[in-house]
Amino acid sequence: MTAAELVASQTKPKGNKFSAQRVEVDGISFDSKKEARRWGELKLLERAGEIIELRRQVVIPLVGRDGPLLARKGRQMRITVDFGYVEVASGLTVYEDAKGLPTRDYEVRRSVAAAQGVEIVEV
Contact, 110 vs 120, CB < 8 A? Predict the structure, then answer.
């Protein structure tokens, strides 16, 4: 065995830090199997007419009492959720995130979004 073969056998391809496996469904790439499964469920609900305006990777800008929250480099902070849609029965916009293990950063951003009246449902 050469040195190059030894190194190649010992290095593993870097994956997701939470062991989620990327998956592709209907030509759409998802970060996890859980997210792809939920997308399928939401598409069925949309076809049944229970929800409308189904969207993926919805960006919600974060705003505080005195205006937009800015990161160190001056950009407005935001949280990106996996899905957004409108429930037909209630007329409310629902934001969902398919989370396995929430990070501290996600928890803080979700709390700020909640403070501005945007609830994020974890599925």
Answer: yes
